[in-house]
Write a structure and sequence with these properties.
- The chain is mainly β.
- The chain is built from six helices and 56 strands.
- The strands form 14 sheets. It has a five-stranded mixed sheet with strand order 2-33-32-31-30, with no helix packed on it. A four-stranded antiparallel sheet has the order 1-56-55-54, with no helix packed on it. Strands 3-4-5-6 form a four-stranded antiparallel sheet, with no helix packed on it.
- Strand 16 and strand 17 form a beta hairpin.
- The N and C termini lie far apart (62 Å).
Length: 883
């Protein structure tokens, strides 16, 4: 008899806030902050389903006017969803061009002489058999993983192109694997769309359009004439700056034009002449576009979202636009040109495909090569808001081959659940994240052979009559699964990582393959592959061989490896848990699953690890979470422990909440939610009750950064944290609970009224502290008190501050660290800068691409600087090479 079904910690993606700046928004985990029971630990699908059911009705494009907690989990989810964008946009909407200007300034800075070393450029095995502790996803079947892939393209010559969420575009010449980065010269490493045109050129639309937690905006559309050999450059941008600072959901070709579905409407450009401006074809609410009379309205980013374009293969003048915000708006619908040449909504004749705004959300089209079929996926705002099981309206086919239909429904979520899906629990069924997960493609040789992606990968060979879940969410819950390390996943075959975004069909050595991109990277299987009796594919291959590193780290931790010598490096990741790299490893392992937030690692013993999930859920282990899975039959053999402070249960912490150890005493920790928490048991902590509240930041306030050295504590907070009434502050006190007070930071004072992202305390003097400030200055945002500057210094314990930004580019600053010689390194959304001891100006450190560096930390001996990038893995550089 097999062991009980394995469970998985899983981030729950719900609401998002579009912005006119860097990121789209944070997306929380269901139940992560709800009351009752353990908010952490082995998270069952039933718990996920319950959290999903509680969140119904939470979906709205409106920003909250208040951040107070009224006990409603939907409000908690909405607050978590806003946080990533808030850091970069509040207190006001940011004007287009901010990132382009920042990148230009950064590249003009004098550079340091050192070079970064990629620490994580080796395979990352999510099924590593060493780590089968209670909160690991190991044995789920995803194999080697990397960061989220937003788009994939492939040709018939064995070339595959993978566009990542935050780490640029990569090329393989061998049908997948042996990857090479080809877009490092661009000012945006966020991919929205990839497409090969009929002439073999590769088109890249920057700006990821998944409207999720950490999707960054782009710098436009680029084309690569010789994708087999060339690389993208700023000179390869198509048109002008019309598509800067937006997202590109799809690129489609027809009638001598390339069409772009963007966050600011539908645009077109000639495919023959690449110069000249893009033409705005259709925006349902043009007054909300940049420069319009309503452009500063908080809801403006939601008012012109386009998802896809369908072009009639028999008559390219017939075009259907799928336009609409996935959570619902009056403009949602399908549009085509009327007799007078104006775009009009299609209100009838679509057949089963909805025509009313409530039924049309995120839509993806795909047509057959012979023109006989058009297919569509439709996510429904109404389902999203009312159905706890799924947001999917359905899959559809137009057998006329025309995108105007009539359309026939060929699948719904109940049918997909019965096709071998792993998502069969009420409240967590296929399409539950259909607004986030969608792809669709048709076999070029068979108009009835279709691959579709939601959370899982589905295949039909008869035009939608029957479906198979060829890429199930995971292997947990299937009878073939086993946690036994000797059996890997038991008799189950490997599957793909969950959450599908991109798909392509190509050929290599005369054989056809389907390639899929998801939250775990890129996978392939033969186009006509084999299946087991459950309909699951038996032939998926992970292409994440370590030569491609697009891992999206929130944090990094470094400690001595007492077993093998050297150092152990760990870090928390978007939807890829916690990675752990021992000094003798050739393959990284995953010792925690779900989303990994902040990380603490004992400098003296790297296997002492505290890993934050979300909303201040914290798990601790003292053996790297090494486990053979025997805890399933003997719970006492678990070696990871839930130690979340109380703000987790009440929902009074941010999605990625701050966690820090005292610089003088690694056994003393500070955590920030509404309260500033302390615990002094170090990695021997075993219960959340061991935390003590040092200070109440106040109702509606949540910590954004904490730091402590020698018993002195700094805590930054915001609340409200969005554009409607944004406020921020700093509280300072002592570890023994004495001396706590709020620093006077007036709205128009020295420190700007923007998101306070981090502290760096001078190890020689706890009253000497540096502060990093996120967002953009008043040049780019008109919010109240936006001010200028990104790095500030205090020599009197935070009472007064001085702007030391000088020549630092106007770019969000995320993290800082004081080097042993008194230098200051700062991680920004576009790389790392450094101010040498005794200097007042900044240098650019090394040659990282335009990638966000969310955290910097030093090695235990202080000689090496580590950078956790959100899209290109973890890098290191010798401190002596920074100046």
């Amino acid at each position: 008899m097999s062991a009980p079904p394995r469970t998985r910690r899983r981030r729950w993606l719900t609401i998002c806030t579009l912005t006119a700046s860097a990121a789209l928004v944070a997306v929380p985990a269901s139940g992560a902050s709800g009351g009752g029971g353990s908010p952490f630990g082995a998270r069952t699908l039933a718990q996920l389903a319950a959290g999903r059911a509680d969140s119904v009705g939470a979906f709205t494009p409106k920003l909250k006017g208040e951040d107070g907690d009224d006990g409603n989990e939907a409000d908690e989810i909405a607050e978590g969803a806003d946080q990533y964008a808030e850091a970069r946009t509040s207190p006001g909407i940011v004007a287009p061009g901010a990132y382009g200007a920042a990148w230009s300034s950064l590249t003009k800075l004098p550079g340091t002489g050192g070079r970064w070393r990629n620490v994580t450029d080796l395979p990352y095995d999510s099924d590593d058999s060493r780590y089968r502790d209670i909160d690991s996803n190991s044995s789920g079947g995803s194999g080697n993983v990397t960061g989220r892939m937003a788009a994939v393209a492939a040709d018939d010559d064995g070339y595959v192109y993978a566009g990542s969420a935050g780490g640029g575009v990569w090329r393989s010449r061998t049908g997948g694997g042996h990857w090479q980065a080809i877009s490092d010269g661009l000012s945006s490493q966020s991919t929205g769309a990839l497409a090969l045109d009929g002439g073999g050129r590769l088109w890249l639309g920057t700006g990821e359009a998944t409207t999720n937690a950490d999707a960054y905006l782009g710098s436009g559309v680029y084309v690569l004439t010789d994708p087999h050999h060339g690389t993208f450059s700023s000179r390869s941008r198509v048109g002008g700056d019309e598509l800067e600072s937006t997202t590109v959901h799809q690129l489609r070709f027809g009638g001598g034009k390339v069409w772009a579905a963007t966050g600011r409407g539908v645009w077109s450009h000639s495919t023959k002449t690449l110069k000249g401006a893009w033409k705005l074809e259709f925006a349902p609410n043009p007054d909300y576009l940049p420069g319009g009379s309503q452009a500063k309205d908080p809801s403006a980013p939601y008012k012109n979202i386009a998802n896809d374009i369908a072009i009639d293969p028999k008559d390219p003048s017939k075009v259907v636009l799928a336009v609409g915000w996935r959570s619902g708006d009056d403009y949602n619908g399908f549009y085509t040109k009327g007799a007078g040449g104006a775009w009009t909504r299609i209100t009838s004749g679509l057949g089963d495909l909805p025509a009313d705004p409530d039924g049309i959300g995120n839509v993806t089209f795909a047509r057959s090569a012979d023109g006989s079929r058009y297919y569509a996926i439709d996510q429904s705002p109404e389902q999203l808001n009312t159905n706890p099981d799924s947001g999917l309206e359905g899959f559809y086919v137009s057998k006329s081959g025309s995108p105007t239909g009539p359309w026939t429904k060929i699948a719904d979520y109940q049918g997909l659940a019965a096709s071998g899906s792993a998502l069969t629990s009420s409240g967590y069924m296929p399409g539950v994240q259909a607004w986030y997960n969608q792809f669709l493609t048709v076999d070029p040789a068979d108009p009835e052979h279709v691959y579709a992606g939601l959370e899982e990968v589905y295949e039909t060979k008869d035009g939608g009559g029957t479906w198979s879940t060829v890429g199930p969410y995971w292997n947990f819950n299937f009878p073939c699964w086993s946690i036994d390390p000797a059996k890997q996943t038991g008799d189950c075959n490997a599957t793909t990582h969950s959450d599908q975004h991109g798909v392509a069909i190509g050929r290599y050595h005369g054989k056809s393959f389907v390639y899929v991109g998801n939250d775990g990277g890129v996978y392939k299987r033969p186009l006509h592959g084999s299946q087991d009796t459950s309909g699951h594919a038996t032939d998926w291959t992970s292409l994440n061989d370590g030569t491609i590193d697009t891992l999206q780290y929130y944090s990094v931790g470094i400690g001595k490896d007492l077993t093998y010598g050297g150092v152990l490096v760990t870090g928390g990741l978007q939807d890829n848990g916690q990675s752990v790299l021992r000094s003798n490893d050739r393959v990284m392992g995953s010792n925690f699953g779900g989303d990994g937030g902040d990380t603490l690692t004992n400098p003296a013993n790297g296997c002492d690890i505290a890993e934050e999930y979300v909303y201040l859920s914290i798990q601790v282990t003292q053996n790297c979470a090494v486990n053979d899975g025997s805890w399933m039959t003997d719970p006492s053999k678990a070696t990871s422990y839930n130690v979340a402070p109380a703000d987790n249960a009440t929902g009074e912490a941010r999605f990625i909440a701050p966690l820090a150890a005292d610089a003088k005493n690694p056994s003393t920790w500070i955590a920030g939610g509404r309260h500033v928490w302390v615990q002094t048991h170090g990695y021997a902590i075993r219960s959340g009750s061991e935390w003590t509240s040092l200070y109440d930041l106040g109702a509606g306030h949540t910590a954004t950064a904490v730091a402590t050295s020698g018993g002195k504590v700094y805590a930054a907070w915001c609340g409200p944290c969005n554009n409607q009434g944004f406020t921020r502050g700093i509280s300072v006190g002592n570890m023994d609970g004495t001396g706590w007070h709020d620093i006077a930071l007036p709205v128009d004072g020295t420190v700007p009224n923007r998101y306070l992202s981090g502290f760096a305390v001078d190890p020689k003097n706890a009253d000497h502290v540096y502060l990093t400030v996120n967002g953009f200055s008043r040049q780019w945002t008109e919010g109240p008190g936006a001010g200028v500057g990104h790095v500030f210094e205090s020599k009197d314990g935070g009472t007064t501050w001085k702007d030391i930004s000088k020549n630092l580019p106007d770019v969000p600053a995320d993290s800082a660290v004081v080097t042993p010689d008194g230098g200051l390194a700062v991680g920004t959304d576009l790389g790392v800068v450094y101010r040498a001891p005794g200097r007042t100006t900044w240098q650019r450190v090394g040659d990282l691409p335009a990638v966000a560096v969310l955290q910097l930390k030093l090695s235990p001996d202080g000689r090496t600087l580590y950078a956790a990038t959100h899209g290109r893995g973890i890098y290191s550089i010798k401190v002596r090479d920074c100046g």
